[in-house]
């Protein structure tokens, strides 16, 4: 039985003080979610990770938004996995569409990061999703299958089981245009079939999230679909009241 998961991606928002204030406000709602068998987490910026980790309910997952695949060296501006581990971070988002678009991150680079995270005992959240152009051409499945095959290349079924996949159509991220539940369900069903081809029955255990303009009032529609195990949420995860609404929506 796959446990539901709500993960907030804070993107480039909040100072450490603002992030710690959210963390304190979220304590009870984290208990509420966990007691209802829902995992919850937030992904603050690097500079807020330590403050959030120290202030938040320890049952809350705290994830980085990115990492380097290298442990150390001449990689100016990068943060390594051992550095994240040193402050108690054991989850990390990989291949968010904004990093693919603005930082040229490829699925092959994501594959190296995912392997390095798994080797360090961390949980990667691998993002995939098609552009508006691919969506309009009816090429969603081709696009997403390529990202899955390249990003998860050469993983064993046991490793794959530890990866969370997030399907986020790029045209729905931060635009207020969410994919219909039919589109999300259809594509996520396809993602699971692709994972099954690659990893056999391990695919049944893998959690797949939907992301793209998820809000407290639409989250339950996605979570009702059999293959959708939770949500990766940007804008609506920034405010504690809205975050609480998302948790409540997950339970509806
Ligand atoms: C995201 O950042 O992964 C995301 C889905 O953003 P939003 O919920 O704001 O569309």
Can you walk me through this structure?
With 252 residues, the protein is of the alpha/beta class. The protein has a single domain (4-250), classed as TIM Barrel (Alpha-Beta Barrel), CATH 3.20.20. It has helices spanning 16-25, 27-35, 46-55, 81-86, 97-103, 107-119, 132-136, 140-151, 157-161, 181-199, 202-205, 219-223, 240-251, and strands at 4-9, 38-43, 61-64, 91-94, 123-128, 164-167, 208-211, 230-233. Helix 1 packs parallel to helix 3, helix 6 crosses helix 8 and helix 8 (140-151) packs parallel to helix 10. The protein starts with a strand and ends with a helix.
Topology readout:
Layout: E1 4-9, H1 16-25, H2 27-35, E2 38-43, H3 46-55, E3 61-64, H4 81-86, E4 91-94, H5 97-103, H6 107-119, E5 123-128, H7 132-136, H8 140-151, H9 157-161, E6 164-167, H10 181-199, H11 202-205, E7 208-211, H12 219-223, E8 230-233, H13 240-251
Parallel strand pairs: 1-2, 1-8, 2-3, 3-4, 4-5, 5-6, 6-7, 7-8
The protein binds phosphoenolpyruvate.
CATH top level?
Answer: Alpha Beta
Oligomer: single chain
Give the strand order of the largest sheet, numbering strands 1, 2, ... along the chain: 1-2-3-4-5-6-7-8
Give the overall average pLDDT.
97
Tell me, what's the shape? globular
Small molecules in complex: phosphoenolpyruvate
CATH superfamily: Aldolase class I
CATH architectural grouping: Alpha-Beta Barrel
Number of separate domains: 1
N-to-C terminal Cα separation, in Å? 18 Å
Helix and strand string, N-terminal first?
EHHEHEHEHHEHHHEHHEHEH
CATH fold naming: TIM Barrel
Low-confidence stretches: none
The portion of residues forming beta strands comes to 15-25%
Query: Number of helical runs?
Result: 13
Q: Report the C-alpha radius of gyration, rounded.
A: 17 Å
State the helicity in percent bands. 40-55%
